[in-house]
Amino acid sequence: MPSGRRLDLLDPTPFDWDDADLALGLARTYRWGGHSAWPLPLSVAQHSISVMLLRRVAAPGITPLEELRELLHDAEEGLLGFDAISVIKPFLGEAFRALTRRLEHMVFLRYGLPAWDARAHAAHKRADRVAAASEAVHVAGWSREEVRRTLKIRSEVLLEDPLAQYYGCTPWEPWPPGVACERFLEQLERLKTAVSPAA
């Protein structure tokens, strides 16, 4: 890892990366197969912040620990350096699913995240699907009909980008990796401090 730590993907521990390693990995891991209607692709780091903000709007009473879990919901992809497009996931097999579950478990251990319960996971998936539908249209260039018919996503497509409202950035424009890394790391540090002020 950039920090000098070593991560064994087949036998990971919660101590194999630092926060900056994770932020950089997520900023350099791209959604939609790296394709975009913009000059840059959309990073998993940017997507993760978007989902966290959507959950905050949907549930104003969400705790910092729950926000942290939302921010880190795809963290294993940053460690792996790969975000599999949904349609190919069934072809990757059980071994790949086991690998990603193991990495996710290490992330949850590292950051003290509670396991998803059914209600929280359903709320998370709603936000994740809204983000995906909106990204498909505004970032990847799909039509709304293609999102419903081909991607099988029935969620609403947002008109307003929650990241633009929060950061004042250009709506739906993918951030450069350095910006995505910096903003993800800021959110991670903010939430870790809120969860454990003395840490």
Walk me through the topology:
Elements: H1 19-27, H2 44-58, H3 64-71, H4 75-80, H5 89-111, H6 118-138, H7 144-149, H8 162-167, H9 177-195
Helix pairs in contact: 1-9, 2-3, 2-6, 2-9, 3-9
Protein architecture, described:
The protein contains nine helices and no strands. The protein has one domain: Hypothetical protein af1432. The two termini are 23 Å apart. It is globular and about 45 Å long. With 199 residues, it is mainly alpha-helical.
User: What's the helix-strand series?
Assistant: HHHHHHHHH
For the sheet with most strands, the description reads: none
CATH superfamily: Hypothetical protein af1432
Q: Which whole number gives the mean pLDDT? A: 95
Percent of residues in helices = 55-70%
- Helix- and strand-based class? mainly alpha
- Number of helices in the DSSP assignment: 9
For the terminal residues, how far apart are their CA atoms? 23 Å
Please mark out the parts with pLDDT under 50 across 5 or more consecutive residues, or reply none: none
Q: Any guess at the CATH architecture?
A: Orthogonal Bundle
Q: Strand percentage, roughly? A: under 5%
Q: How many domains?
A: 1
* DSSP strand count: 0
Shape: globular
In short:
The chain has 199 residues and is mainly alpha-helical. 57% of the residues lie in helices and 0% in strands.
